[in-house]
Design a protein that fits this description.
heterodimer, A: 297 residues, mainly alpha, 3 domains, B: 182 residues
Chain lengths: 297, 182
Amino acid sequence: MDLGQYDFDKNLQKDSHYWYEEYKPSERGDSPDPVVIYSKFNANLSKFSFLPSWEEAVIKGICKDKNDYYSLLRAICIIWSQKKLQIYNSSDEVRLIKMMLILRETDQMIGRLSDQIIFWYSMGMNCSNSAHRSKKSADLIREMASCDERDGISMLCCDLVRMKESRARLVRDISMRSERLLPNCSVIVGPLVAARLLVEAGSLKRLSQMPASKIQVLGARNALFSHLSSGSPPPKHGLIFEHKRIHAASRKIRGKISRTLSGNLAIASRIDHFRGVKDPIFLERAQLRIEKAGKKS
Amino acid sequence: MAGSLRIWPPERSKLAALYYLGSGPEICASDQILYLGAASGTTVSFIADYAGVIYAVEIAPEPLVMLLEVCNIKKNIIPIPADAALPLTYAPLVSRVDLLYQDIAQKEQVKIVLKNLFFLKPGGSLILMLKTRSVASQQEPEEICSNAVSELLNAGLAEIKVTWLNKYHRDHAAIICKKLEK
């Protein structure tokens, strides 16, 4: 929609049809219903003329006065906004992104809280730092949760243990949604990493429009910009590093695998966006390509 | 809060900062305003106290929720859930306005305001809150601002006045200008 090409005067003069003219005033003289008027155009305003004025609406007998006109318009716009929000809130994509944000927050909270509790524990035990560091923090928390003394800290430990269970459940829910929304990407990098890519890209549409080289370094923003501005080595991988094929590989071939992986992810995200179903033939080929990249060295 | 009055803090609202610095235009009770980039409706709610009708354009869903809450209190705000860069999508609902206010931190900020210029009555004024860091992070703010001013001049706007809001908002410039009478 370029305004430069649009003929305004034509729109303004020739057979003008303003939004309020959708409403036919009845003989009974009841006031216009915003819900009915909204349903007439349903967010598609393209058939109406531009720049309506309240004076004309009053002359045409739709509204009593200026205030009447604006309160009608306001009611319609509020319905429009609410409809728009409804569509946004019910989108699977948005829900998945919000769930990922909750997961990120949960992880941060669990991490910070257990750090502080272990620090507190090591103070009370009067043991040197290295003694309890050898123990895994998760084990320590579990141990403290099961101790008989019911003080605040041990109750918090119980909460932490339960929190971890809830987190595992959340991850399962996310995986399910992600496999439904990103069927091809989920097979290639796993549902969780696929969902992270989605969060980083912002939407599936944007992810599907990204070049493979961008998907490769998605989530490595700082490294990429420090490369561009000060010439440090470029990042080989961003989020996709979390996939086991990359972080299990030896350092030398990581770059190669992540290039292949992101190339296939770019195709997979396009299939996910435009078709939305699994493509077994593509997936088989993609797996072969990725394996081949890992073998040659 | 001071009794039933509200404080309009210049740190939170760029328009308030502009008035604190002494160069905001007068808003009268009969004015119609088109506000692009309404966000969560803080500044909108203050303008609504002075203006007649205010069209608040905002596309992002999360701020829109807050904007609708503000709409419930102020009866003269008309929320428009559309993209300010595509004025044709809401042009059938918006009348000619006396004041065009734009506060969108985007690279294309000046282009967006020029696209919306046809809503403005001849003789009406335009306030553009230019966030220079969004236009280009490497360029000098003064240079970006003078580019924007020359673009506005080319589009036929006059009486351009630039106020830097550096005291309250870093690297923000308020550009006030007038659309010429035909």
